[in-house]
UniProtKB/TrEMBL annotation:
<protein>
    <submittedName>
        <fullName>Response regulator</fullName>
    </submittedName>
</protein>
<keyword id="KW-0597">Phosphoprotein</keyword>
<keyword id="KW-0902">Two-component regulatory system</keyword>
<feature type="modified residue" description="4-aspartylphosphate">
    <location>
        <position position="53"/>
    </location>
</feature>
<dbReference type="InterPro" id="IPR001789">
    <property type="entry name" value="Sig_transdc_resp-reg_receiver"/>
</dbReference>
<dbReference type="Pfam" id="PF00072">
    <property type="entry name" value="Response_reg"/>
</dbReference>
<dbReference type="InterPro" id="IPR011006">
    <property type="entry name" value="CheY-like_superfamily"/>
</dbReference>
<dbReference type="GO" id="GO:0000160">
    <property type="term" value="P:phosphorelay signal transduction system"/>
</dbReference>
<feature type="domain" description="Response regulatory">
    <location>
        <begin position="4"/>
        <end position="120"/>
    </location>
</feature>
Length: 127
């Protein structure tokens, strides 16, 4: 059984592409289309890692990340923020919201996989 990743992304094309690519790499991927659903799925499923788009409907990624990091059960799940806005300050803003790391979109798969593996392997991920 592979590591479980929760992908929170409102853009259907991005969501499908990323989830297919991650599945091919051996991950079990669950997806959510908005921050509120993402928070609920994280609580219910306790994924090993969360990829969180920051520009989301209903509840944005900043708020969803703060919510998850504020709850004991989900605070330990690493969150990698994904944002198309590689603006100065976004990285800091993501880290302040509780995200563990930050990556820009369009996603560069090798770089993103490196970050994912750093958290999963570093956390002594159980297979």
């Amino acid at each position: 059984m592979g590591n479980r990743i929760l992908l929170v992304e409102d853009n259907e094309m991005n969501r499908d592409m990323l989830s297919r690519r991650l599945t091919r790499k051996g991950f079990e991927v669950t997806t959510a289309e908005d921050g509120a659903t993402g928070v609920q799925l994280a609580r219910d499923e306790r994924p090993d890692l969360i990829l969180m788009d920051m520009s989301l409907p209903v509840m944005d990624g900043w708020e969803a990340s703060r919510t998850l990091k504020g709850e004991a059960d989900t605070a330990v799940i690493p969150i990698i923020a994904l944002t198309a806005h590689a603006m100065t300050g976004d990285r800091e803003k993501a880290l302040e919201a509780g995200c563990d790391d930050f990556d820009t979109k369009p996603v560069e798969m090798p770089r993103l996989l490196e970050k994912i593996h750093a958290y999963l392997d570093g956390a002594g991920a159980s297979a």
